[in-house]
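Record format v2
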Amino acid sequence: MSDSWTDGNSLGGALRDVFSVDVTAAIGRCAGCGRAGPLAEGRVYDHSPGTVLRCPGCGQSLLRLVRGPGRTWLDLRGLEFLELLSPD
Amino acid sequence: MARAAVLGRLSWRVAQLAGVRDETATARTLVLEVPDWPGHLPGQHVDVRLTAADGYSTERSYSIASAPDGSRLELTIARLDDDEVSPYLTQVLSPGDPLELRGPIGGYFAWRPADPAPVVLIGGGSGVVPLMAMVRTRIAGLSPAPMRLIYSTRSRGTLLYAAELERIADQHPGLSVNVVYTRAAPPGWHGRAGRLDAMSLAALAGPQDAGAWSFVCGPTSFVENIANLLIDQGLDSRQVKTERFGPSGSGQAEAHDER
């Protein structure tokens, strides 16, 4: 694993390709350590063909996003839940 | 405005460069006209996409520097020499040229001007850019919230928005600006040069700011350090919002590191 990372704010555009609302402000709970916090506070590693968001507490992969021609793969198994704000 | 900023499909738009302002020897502000811009919250960013003639394309994220102002949008770009996007944006793109972008992006590092709670902004190097959008929104009269900007930069030569920051000092009740020079203080400066540490930060922000929102933006090590110091001083970690730019542990972070 490269030690080079940025934070989850940088995933905003890529996730808006998939979701209709901003997900970086959503609270997610890590399936590894139970830490709950905004995805924006996670660590993003994007020096491989896909992008991985890791828990800032334990390093568990929370989200993996791979984009290919005409499709996107999203692996969310490291997240127990996502709490999204729904504007009234 | 807030609703427009968070809802709806995010599509690429073609903006047009209306003008430029050189901020320092290596940073330039792009003034863009963006047709049908839905508005933004200060702190949000855009993705910029450059596409070569052969179809190769690459994207970068840049913070919005301006307050919401119709179809006008300003980005301040720091030129990084080992990068393939920022040299083009700061040295080649000329008024009248098109630029593809999408946004606004991000709901976490975003200040809601309708919230009356005090705001403490701490920026390192070009991390001041999204904070400047908040300052400008405050100046535009879109919020009465007490606001303090603490801006750490290497020297006078790397200070972004120098003239504007001087102009706003003391002219806006409830808004204050503190510049911290880390390498060289300009002649006549009242303070010494040095990095923000626990002691110097305590003089600028502390327990009196419990209940305030704080926004910390800059290189990764700067942000980690400052956010931890704020939390040590009693601020609620849930109200300390952070944005790190430039990957850590690489040459790019060095180039970004203007603390």
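The mean pLDDT of chain A is 92.
Residues 29 and 35 of chain A are 6 Å apart (CA to CA).
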